[in-house]
Amino acid sequence: MRSFDLIIVGTGSGNSIVSPNYDDWDIAIVERALFGGTCLNVGCIPSKMLVYTAELAEAAGNGGRYGIDTRFVSADWAAIRDRVFGRIDPIAESGEQYRKSLSNATVYGADARFVGPKRLQVGEEVITADKIVLAAGARAFVPDIAGLYESGFHTSDTIMRIEALPKRLTVIGGGYIAAELGNVFGSLGSEVTFLLRGHTMLRSQDAAISECFTKIYADKFDVRTGVNIEEAHRDGSEIVLKTNSGDHRCDELLVATGRIPNGDQLQVAATGVATDDRGYVITDKQLRTNVEGIWALGDVTNPIQLKHVANHEARVVSHNLMHPEDPAEVDHRFIPAAVFGHPQVASVGLTEEQCSRAGLPHRVAVKQYASAAYGWAMEDTESFCKLIVNTETRRLLGAHLLGPQASTLIQQLIQAMVFNLSVDDIAAKQYYIHPALPEVVEQALLEL
After folding, report:
1. What is the CA radius of gyration of the chain?
2. Phi, then psi, of 110 in degrees rounded to 5
């Protein structure tokens, strides 16, 4: 059994732990799939490259509104796909080759599972280390629907590499993955149907955001709510879903019903690492597990499965490995998130519903994009900024935006919350460029 100074399981954000500070450590890096993890290969990066392409198609189809003779004719899916992965795949390959070239690193490209205390079986070999970092990520959750596997389906892991643009694509789910990828294919020419168990998309968002987003998507796509899928089967080239409202047929099926942590597949219980009732590895603020010498980060620990969270956690773990006498702690007070659908959605902090349930004294301001000059120039009639303030402390409790540039516009509000600025200071003690879109945020702040 070979012994290392450090074992890192997973090469997403976990890969960034290894810096020149570790040149004198003997390190094992374990990755069963593509080097670089979910975000680089099957998540944020390829999906946003596709999102940008879809935005161009959307703009081309709407030029007439502004007196411009543009049309969306068709999409060369093979060219779009190959452009995306022609850029991404070499990055994953070069990252793996770089790690393999390091004299102090051993890369294991195999599945792994714990077989005892700090004993990790990788392929046919068992390795161990005093220090281990679990950064094994998460995987797509597939609901238990009779006949689903036999019928054939895609998840976010496979849909972006599909061979042809489907004529009819059905998406099971209404979360951010469903919203983003469904819109990509819809914008490029597929007939998209969303099947939702509930009554709105993006249910974790503030109710005003969720309701508006659902209406916009229902105007563009076939959004069916309150759907219970009983079974699936294949009828020739078609996939048939039996639902409580009748049979539904499609050419391709995307299952986007959430993601679950990989701790069970890693069999972390065999090394004594505790998990919660949803399977997430439990850590403290220093990202230590209950087992001395084992840390964990990213999607395997956190239901808020966001790359910027995992990157933050990787920096904390890297520091704590090198400086146990001066440990750092994670700061998860104000975690922002964005949905890159059309429209974009961005949020940070509490929703209005959460504030009410918590009994927090609060006030709400909502400003439409059209209330600012640039939004008016865009003839935007749907987008808005919603801010929630604590009426006693004058600090923001939450910020929620729906519309163009939402993921950028929210950044100043994140900063204000982190640095404990009052809404009065944010609104009055800086200039807002006229007539840029941040004036929408300014107007909401001034109303508060």
Report:
1. 24
2. -150, 165
Tell me the C-alpha distance between 321 and 323, whole Å. 6
Residue with tokens 């403290």: 284
Closest CA to 56 of 42, 69, 75: 75
Report which of 394, 411, 385 is spatially closest to residue 360, judged by C-alpha positions: 394
72-107 pLDDT tens trace: 999 999 999 999 999 999 999 999 999 999 999 999
User: Considering Cα of 6, then 11, then 13, then 18, what sign does the dihedral take?
Assistant: positive
Q: Which helix (H) or strand (E) holds 326?
A: none
What is the value of pTM for the model shown? 0.96
Is 342 among the residues known to form the active site? Answer: no
Whole-number Å distance between alpha carbons of 388 and 369 = 17
Q: What angle do CA 341, 342, 347 make, to 5 degrees?
A: 60
Helix, strand, coil in percent for the chain, rounding step 5: 35, 25, 40
Element at 260 (helix H, strand E): strand 259-261
Q: Give the mean pLDDT of 150-161.
A: 98
Q: Which residues neighbour 59 within 8 Å (Cβ) at sequence distance 6 or greater?
A: 70
Question: Running DSSP on this structure, what letter comes out for residue 269?
Answer: G
pLDDT given at position 241: 98
Give residue-wise pLDDT tens across range 324-382: 999 999 999 999 999 999 999 999 999 999 999 999 999 999 999 999 999 999 999 99
Residue 251 CA to chain centroid, in angstroms?
A: 26
Task: In whole angstroms, give the CA distance from residue 136 to residue 300.
Answer: 6
Do residues 99 and 15 make contact, with C-beta atoms less than 8 angstroms apart? yes
Enclosing H/E stretch for 395: none
Residues 6+ apart with CB under 8 A from 366: 208, 384, 385, 386, 387, 444
Q: Which of 199, 323, 332, 434 is catalytic?
A: 434
The span from the CA of 157 to the CA of 34, in Å, is 11
Structure tokens at 250: 């499609």
Model confidence at 231, pLDDT cuts 50, 70, 90, reads very high
